[in-house]
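Extended Data, panel c. Modelled sequence:
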Amino acid sequence: MKKNRRKFLKISGLASLSGGAVLNSFASSHERHDKSAQHSTMKYDQHKTDPSIVMEGDVSIIGLYGPWATSSQEKQLPAFSYRKQTWKDLQTWQNAAQERFTERLALPDIGGLPEVKVNKQYTYDGLHIEELSWQLPYGRPTEAILLKPEDATGALPAILAFHDHGGNKYFGRRKITRTSDQQHPLMDAHQQHYYENMAWANEIAKRGYVVLVPDAFPFASRRVMMQDVPEHMRQGLNDVDPENPNNIEAYNRWAGEHEHVMAKSLFSAGTTWPAVFLAEDQKALDILCAREDVDEERVGCGGLSGGGMRTVFMGGFDSRIKCAVCVGFMTTWKDFALHKSYTHTWMTYVPLLPNELEFPEILGLRVPLPTLVLNDEDDQLYTLPEMKAADKILADVYQKAGAEDHYRCSYYPGPHKFDVPMQKEAFDWFDRWLKS
C-alpha cells in the first residue's frame, strides 16, 4: 500500500490538471533535458521547481508559431474587454459580454431542478453530513456530500465547494471531504499533498456554512465507465474491484488519455467542456439554494486547480454566487498559448473566446461582486509573469467599476496547492462577505 501511495503522490503532483498522455511526454522530455542542461545556455524563469518550463530565449511550446499565434492579442484588447474605452457603462458591458460568453460556451439545456435523494445521514466531527444523489437527463446519478454544523439552526450562508482535477478522475467529492476516521489511503495522500492534510470542505462547514460538494463531470460517480465504451477502447480494463489502488491508477491513466476523445466529441456535439461543467454546477447551485437551511442571498463558491477553473466560469456567469475564491487557476490566454496549454486539461478551452475576453475577464464578469484569487509563486502550471498580468487585468476591471475593495489577489510561496494559510485567507474572505 505504501508503494502505491508514493506512486500516487508522484503522479498527482505532476499531473495536476494534465492527462496521462501528457505525463508520459513530460517525463521523457524531462529526462532528455537533464543530460543537456548542465552544458547549455538555457534560461530558467522563476519556477525553477518545474523542469517543463526550461526555455531558450523566447521560444514557445509551438515553436516559431508562438509569436504569430498571440500577435493579435498583443496588439489590441479583446472585443468585449471592459478595459476598452468604448465600454463606458458597467451594466451595458456586462449584458453584452455575458451574451457573447454564453454564445461561445454553447451551454446545453439539461432540464429543470432534479429530484434529490438523501441516501444517508449521520454526524461526524461535529458536522451533520448528508450523502445525496440526483439524476440528470444523461449519465449515471450525480453523487454529492453536504456538510453543516450538527447543531445549526435556521438559514445559513452556503458554499458550493469544487473538488480539484489532480489527474485523478476516479475520485471527486472525496478529495476535499472527510466523513469518517477511515478513508481511502489515496485520499489521505491526496489531502496531504494538496491541502496540508485538511479536508477543506469540512473546515469551512465548521465555521457555520452549509457546504455542498458534488462530483463534477466526468469524475467519480460521473466518470466514464469501462462497460459503457467500445471494447476496443478499454485497454483490457474493467469496472471490477474499483477501489483497488492499482485499478484506480490504471483507470486514471486511461481517463487522462481519453480526455482528447471527450473534448473532440463535445465539440462535435455542438458544445464545450466548460459549458457542461457550468450546466452541471448550476444544477448543483439550484439544489443548494432550494434548501430551507440555506440563505440563498449568501452563497459562495471556490476550489483549487480544476475547482479554481470551475470557480472562474461559475463565478463569472452566475450572479447568485455572491463571493468567489479561485485558487491555483489564474493566468492569461497567452500563458496557455505560449507556455502551458500542455500542462492543462482539455476542460479549460472555449473556442474563439480569447478574441473577446481575456481569461481573467471571465471571472471579471462578476464585478463588483467580491472576488479573491490565491496564487502559488512556484506553481508549475503557470508562469509567474502571466499570473501577475492576470492579477493586473482583474484589478483594472474592478478599479474601473469603482469596486477596488471587492477584489484581492494574494501570492504564497511553494508549488500548486491550497494549504492551511491559504485556506485561512479564503475562509476569512467568505466570512467577510457572506456573514456580515
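The longest strand covers residues 294-304. This feature is highlighted in the accompanying rendering.
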